[in-house]
Design brief:
Elements: E1 2-10, H1 17-25, E2 32-42, H2 48-56, E3 62-67, H3 73-83, E4 88-93, E5 97-98, H4 102-107, E6 115-124, H5 131-149, E7 156-160, H6 173-183, E8 187-198, H7 204-225, H8 234-247, H9 252-277
Parallel strand pairs: 1-2, 1-4, 2-3, 6-8
Antiparallel strand pairs: 4-7, 5-8, 6-7
Length: 298
Amino acid sequence: MLSCSIGVMAFNEEANIGYVLDALLRQRLVTCHVKEIIVVASGCTDATERIVESIARSDPLMTLTVQRRREGKASAINLFLSGAGGDVMVIESGDTIPDEDAIENLVRPFRDPEIGMTGAHPIPVDSEDSFMGFTSHLFWRLHHTLALNHPKLGEMIAFRNIVHAIPKDTAVDEASIEALVTEAGYRIHYAADAIVYNKGPETIADFLKQRRRITAGHKHLQSTRGYRVSTMSARNLMGLLGRFVKDTSWNPKRFFWTCGAVLLESWGRLLGMYDYHVKKKNPFAWDVARSTKRLKDD
């Protein structure tokens, strides 16, 4: 039976960290077991550390590692990797919540010796009644459709214990791990049945903040390692868009909101390319999109 080490990266996640840790402790497991859950609290100034310490006192699986200064998510991941000992490493952000079978479905594919990394299926909790909620659901549905044929892994990932550190200056940690795993000769796999819930940005400003950072990060990865994720391929995106236009039942609101979402994504990517190529900016310790941080209402 495979063992897995779960790393939860947290920066000021007091609104959500209790929910994610409770969900991890309640996982239904058949083909794997959890060896440890390591929370890396990076430069937290809220109650995140106190909440984790309280939960850890009642469960020996859980430990807290504290970074006094925020050095970026990649640095936090490296701290986790340096202390984890499972056969499979699982990385989850503190602003997501896994479904009860997520870890099982994420780790089970490693029974195939050719698979080196898997990624979960993110589903937003946002209401589609608002434009920003519609936009989040639209892009994660497109991400899901693309990943079924051209895996692109994010939000919650798992990989064999062959990656011992990632570049500290990466702003796209999951993609950097993809690059390292494929360089080692393994395949990556999209685990569509491993559901993880996230929250999209509530404001246009937060959306653009995310998209420009991710685009700049992918440009940096492509420049330094020659690796391009499937969502950065124009051919993949054009094929995906064609299928989406053909398969969608259109009405006026959906049409105008889809056009608005595509314009926002395009603008975010242009800003990211400007940041990287003109400003020479690689935002590996990024400004947080705060409206994505509360998945559940108290």
